[in-house]
Amino acid sequence: MRISIVIPSYNRGYIIDRTLKSILNQIYQEWECIVVDDFSSDNTEEIVNLYHLQDNRIMFLRNNRLKGAQGARNTGILAAKSDWIVLFDSDNVMHSDFLLKCADVIESNNIDVVTTWSNVIDSKTNKKINHFMWVNNGNIYNGLLSAKCYIDNSSTVIKKSKLEEIGLLSEDCPAFQEWDTHIRLSQIAIYKTIEECLIDYYAGAADAISSDQVKDVKGYVYILNKYKKEWISFSKYYFIKYASLLKYKISLLNAEQKALFKDSFNAIAEGYKPVINIFSKVFTIKHLISQR
Fold first, then answer.
1. Which residues are CB-neighbours of 72 under 8 A, at least 6 positions away?
2. CB–CB of 111/123 below 8 Å?
3. What angle do helix axes 273-290 and 262-269 make, rounded to 10 degrees?
């Protein structure tokens, strides 16, 4: 069984060395690594090519689809020669037994996706500050809509044919890309979690999507617009909860930024505004309490 590791990259020359070293250190040897570059202006290509000279399973490829991480990931998925895919981030680290343990679970279970737990590492201090310990077993569609589970790309191995079945990744999704991918994927895939931290996930980088409040709001708008009917059909409570959280997130922006989302929020909230207003006040009160 072979596994393709797809890494989107843009100006990551200063950090990707750590990631590639962790891939070379894998106990499981049946892999290829495709770094898909989004036309970096730094030395990313030079560094990846040096690793290619050391091990030709590491390859450099240009993104030939829509600019951005999702387009780069899709370029890599289509170029991959394996039946299984890891959508890895260019600043994270695999523990040496990550691929081995995932391959063992895949070979002994009838599943389409295997996930693991992760340590969360502060990018500035290199100290562990948290962990991701979501348990995703079986059919997780309802769990993704009710916040009972979540998926991080870097700690996940996915059957390539299932990604092709959903039409690859949504290249217009601005944030919460894993959420979008797995809401779609979980409707046709069976999941299993290895309850062990096998990835070091680095948080707090200035150039990460998760550090941008406007992109964060854009992601919520995208997800709620796209899956509003599914959410309401599953549970109006969870739709209202997420819409209220969106309203609260918008309230944290400046006046100019708030104006960007007025129409889109009104469209999402249509028919539920009074109760969403009440819920969003709860989020505001919780925030004020946490700031004391």
1. 8, 9, 10, 36, 37, 38, 63, 65
2. no
3. 120
Beta strands of 10-134 (E only): which ranges? Answer: 31-37, 58-62, 84-87, 93-94, 113-122, 128-132
- Alpha carbon 95 to its chain centroid, in Å, reads 19
Residue 237 Cα distances to 27, 40, 63, 147, 256, angstroms:
45, 43, 40, 12, 30
Residue bearing tokens 């009972």:
148
Domains of the chain: 3-207 (3.90.550.10), 212-290 (no CATH)
pLDDT, greater one: 241 or 208? 241
| Per-residue pLDDT at 239 | 95
Chain-wide mean pLDDT for the chain?
93
Dist. CA 133–CA 196, nearest whole Å: 8
- The model's confidence at residue 204, banded by pLDDT at 50, 70 and 90, is confident
Report DSSP letters for 75-107, one per residue. Answer: HHHHH--SSEEEE--TT-EE-TTHHHHHHHHHH
Average pLDDT over residues 68-74: 96
How far apart (Å, rounded) are the C-alpha atoms in residues 104 and 5?
Answer: 17
Q: Which two tokens stand for residue 25?
A: 């250190």
Q: What value does the mean pLDDT take over residues 239-258?
A: 93
**Tokens 């894993």 belong to which residue?**
178
Supply the DSSP symbol for 263. Answer: H
Q: Give the closest residue to 177 by CA, choosing from 60, 38, 40, 71.
A: 71
Per-residue pLDDT tens over the stretch 214-225: 999 999 999 999
Amino acid type, 162: K
CA–CA dist 96, 100 (Å, integer): 8
CB atoms closer than 10 angstroms to residue 47: 20
Q: pTM of this prediction? A: 0.93
